[in-house]
Design goal:
The chain is an alpha/beta fold. It has helices spanning about 1-15, 35-40, 60-70, 85, 100-105, 125-130, 140-155, 165-175, 180-190, 200-205, 210-220, 225-235, 240, 280-290; strands at about 20-25, 25-30, 50-55, 115, 135-140, 195-200. It has a single domain (about 1-290), classed as Rossmann fold (3-Layer(aba) Sandwich). Helix content is about 40%, strand content about 10%. The chain starts with a helix and ends in a 12-residue tail after the last helix. The relative contact order is 0.17. Its EC number is 2.8.2.-.
């Protein structure tokens, strides 16, 4: 917590709005533009663990689960620093950090956990070459859209979403950071057939966290006791994480994340989209979903 408070004035002073820059027609934060060659040529290691997601699909949640697994359920170790500082976001350069995250990743000792929102076709080739293990988490698009909208509302470095209607249109068209949700989830779904990818679903983790965490343990070839497993389940539950200042972003200045507008950890419950979508929007979205997901074996639950 001390690090966050110490850096807070710098964070406020250097805060810049993330503007859009496109790579292969995928909108990315422009802060990555001057670093893209280094990011794309990032040198992975065989024992790297990659956490990949589309934004607002459970990245933060899964990072906490993986951190607890790597630290054998040691809660205090997992509170050693704020979540954003514990593990780097491969493609991002945060205004309040002295170094881009890919450089921070290079300086980490192995085994490294590295996060990314990049679609599969923009992943650094060395990650494929080194056959790194990748955990991918997908969330149903309706809840993803609503959560993304609220995140834009409360995070001052993201473009103002104006209103849900406008954000809805941008999301459907893939005109938000990291592009089309449809392309993202389908691209990673296809990649799992030829790479070491554990493809998980947000809704499954919410419904049966023990079963899904056991899948992760098997994938990582990690054995833990039932006691530690239960501790991980408890400490990575939504209600407990929401009270953890090293996980809930409440230590950040209001000028960067305004929790009075919308808390970073808002609800975390599948089906909340029903409180926001109009009947017309839902019907339109379902038609668009059927068209864009035609031929895919991927299926999503919009509630549990």
């Amino acid at each position: 917590m001390a690090m966050i408070e110490k850096n807070a004035p710098t964070m406020e002073k250097e805060l810049k709005l993330f503007s859009i820059w496109e790579v292969d027609e995928v909108p990315l934060p422009e802060l990555t533009k001057e670093l893209w060659d280094q990011i794309y040529n990032f040198q992975a290691k065989p024992d790297d663990l990659i956490l990949a997601t589309y934004p607002k699909s459970g990245t933060h949640w899964m990072q906490e689960i993986l951190d607890m697994i790597q630290n054998d359920g040691d809660v205090e170790k997992c509170k050693r620093d704020h979540s954003l500082h514990r593990y780097p976001f491969l493609e991002l350069k945060f205004p309040h950090k002295e170094k881009p995250d890919w450089v921070i990743a290079l300086e980490m000792s192995s085994p490294r956990l590295i996060k990314t929102h990049l679609p599969s076709h923009l992943i650094p080739p060395s990650i494929w070459k080194e056959n790194c293990k990748i955990v991918y988490v997908a969330r149903n698009p309706k809840d993803c859209l609503v959560s993304y909208y609220h995140f834009h509302r409360m995070a001052s470095y993201l473009p103002d979403p104006q209103n849900l209607e406008e954000f809805y249109e941008k999301f459907v068209l893939g005109k938000v950071f990291y592009g089309s949700w449809f392309d993202h989830v389908k691209g990673w779904w296809a990649a799992k057939d030829t790479h070491q990818i554990l493809y998980l679903f947000y809704e499954d983790i919410k419904k049966d966290p023990k079963r899904e965490i056991e899948k992760i343990l098997k994938f990582l070839e990690k054995d833990i006791s039932e006691e530690i497993l239960n501790k991980i389940i408890y400490h990575t539950s939504f209600d407990v994480m929401k009270q953890n200042p090293m996980a809930n972003y409440t230590t950040w200045p209001t000028s960067i994340m305004d929790h009075s507008i919308s808390p970073f950890m808002r609800k975390g419950m599948p089906g909340d989209w029903k409180n926001y979508f109009t009947v017309a929007q839902n019907e339109e979205f379902d038609k668009d979903y059927q068209n864009k997901m035609a031929g895919s074996t991927l299926t999503f639950r919009t509630e549990i």
